[in-house]
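#dry-run=false #mode=assembly
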Amino acid sequence: MKTMMYRDAISSALAEEMRRDEKIFVMGEDVAITGGVYKATKGLLDEFGPQRVRNTPLSEWAIAGVACGAAMCGARPVAEIMHVDFIGCCFDIVLNQMSKMAYKTNGKLNVPMVLRTQGGRGKSNGCTQSQSLESLFTHIPGLKVVMPATPKDAKGLLKSAIRDNNPVIFIEHKGLYQTKGEVPEEEYLIPLGKADVKRTGKDVTIITYSKSVLTSLDAAKELEGKGIDAEVLDLRTLVPLDFEAIRESVTKTGRVVIVHESTERTGYGAEISAQIADKLFDELDAPIVRVCGANIPVPNATLPEIESAPTVEKIVKAAVRVCQGGKWNG
Amino acid sequence: MDYKELGLTKEELVEMYRMMRLIRVFEESAVAYFKQGIVIGNMHMYVGEEAVATGVCKALTKEDYIASTHRCDGHLIAKGADINAMMAELMGRENGICAGRAGKMHQTAPEVGFMSANGIVGASQTLGTGHALYCSLYAPERVSVSFFGDGGGNQGAFHEAMNMAALWKLPVIFVCENNHYAISTRVDTATAMGTFYQRAAGYGVPGVRVNGNDVLEVYAAAKEAVARARRGEGPTFIECDTYRLRGHHEGDEQTYRTREEVNEVRENNDCITRMQTLLKAEFGWTEEEDQALIKSVDDEIAAAVEFGLKGEPMKVEDMYNNLYVD
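#status=ok
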């Protein structure tokens, strides 16, 4: 094992895969000389040159569409959309092209591309550079959606995403790039569609993903002091969803708190909640509770920005409520 | 346009003439079965525009790529797609070109380089540029063609794709099929300059406008553009001035134009009649030869219809297949 930053785990996954398969190339805004605004493609230009590390104009529609067109012919592009908020500028490609190609052609064509992007708040970037938009993607059949929380997961999942023959939306979090974690020295893959128990516990299952995993782990520590043993289940991949991991954990704890940073209303937590209510109703000892982003644009100022997202305090409160009952004032 | 300067033989001219007829009869037949409820979907016909697909595809090899539009039958047929499977697809049958999944607007035939038809106007521009990027990186002997109409020419993607293609000198030919109407909106009421070809200059790309109902003019422009692309000199923009003889879709009441306007083109600038006239004048093309060709086309289309009718409709139990591939 070695200690690595999240952003370096991304670039290291890209480099390893690009060495393995020349059909893989990277394209996006500022990905070449600077290695991206978050340095997640740093070093690639030097090793692979400008043909395979393609700096693009500010043209999201073309970035996504050209990558998709190349993938249809057999290339394996990793296209970067700098902020997930910019997806509106290329959404046709996501919604109508990359996601539907295999289905509408009955498998005659497929789109083996990864669309890397990042989202989330925490930098006072305001309402158009801080969003968590995963539900836009999980709603579209034909896409896979990956949201890693740790350097180890980021590397292993990105390598799997690149090798996947389907279009994968790979959403990083701007607040994670400089976090550090243990990463195996040897080559490894983490399969898409496998959740990971980041902390075992017996009283309540906190289901979460991306940066909210870290907040949930902090909350779990605090819950210990209140005599509540929380399990933190990191989904890692939203589509395909590892419902078996949810079943296993919820069957054990009987209580569920769902945590995500994206807007609560019709967020991915609503889907998880509905599936649990449908399939595991008899296992539940308490209502399912969500701790999510507020139903407002992400505020710019520091305190509202923090308070409009899941916090340790809110997660703790929710866990206490589902474990101990009582009136919810959340 | 002189066919001799283009190095075309009588056989090649007859082949182009036949291709245009084949596309037209295929579509007219599809319309007839649509009216009986056997062909299904939203029918955007290419009738009147056959010279564009025929002239462009004549300049391509089977390995070259095409990104097409909702008005795709002509591009498919001219690129060599299986018309039996196309007709079956229009009928939603399992023996269709995409097993009944695609329907009229999303037919795909990668086996002949036809990578996509599209319900989204403007999608072909970035996708076709992407095919060209693939050629540039991994298959330098190939080129890509992006077809779009005067409607698609006004999408923002046009500019993003043209700029990126020109910047990277990608082997893509942008073919704007200006058929004068985006559904009901006449081109001069939606396009500031009235025409498109001059926009190419803004990207440092050669841009030409040709009579899109003259297959020789289209072929001449395409041949030059393809040669430039294969030499690694980047994209070309060709605006084909053509005309849609049927409505935007079958059932379109066409209140936005007069019958006289349509008849004027049908009588004086129809691509098929133009080639027929040329064959008569240059090669003494006889009525017997013409009738024999028409019959062979009709027979081929009748066989396609028969093939389609024999197919089973796509099954409900198959509707979850191939959402993802392995």
